[in-house]
Amino acid sequence: MEGSDAKNNNNNGSQSVRVAVNIRPLVTPELLVGCSDCISVTPGEPQVQIGSHSFTFDYVYGSTGAPSSRIFDDCVEPLVDALFHGYNATVLAYGQTGSGKTYTMGTNYNGECTNGIIPKVMHMIFKRVEDTKGTTEFLIRVSFIEVY
To answer: pTM of the predicted model, to two decimals?
Structure first.
């Protein structure tokens, strides 16, 4: 592993569930009132520390982990590839209010919505379908749910 790359090399497809943590940076209002990070990342490892507790995941992004922009490439793109080999896939964002789920998934249409996971997945799926047009027939079913 290089630098602060938090990618786990145990990504050989033998796991059916993988867990990635995306650490949201502090936002301006939090910084203005003197908030500080309460979580730290073990350099080069997919592990975080909160106080005296350590937690290991498959991937850690943000903070001093791998950059958040890699979430799609590392975690989601392989799932989209698997769709075209007959597998189903689910991406679930879970966390408390304000933790960055909507931003990460790209369902907040007040700005850079095309940077999120959902728009990237849809673009990738329809590009793959277009690239094989005339040689393969596709039936695409997509579900989306946002629970508050």
So the answer is: 0.77
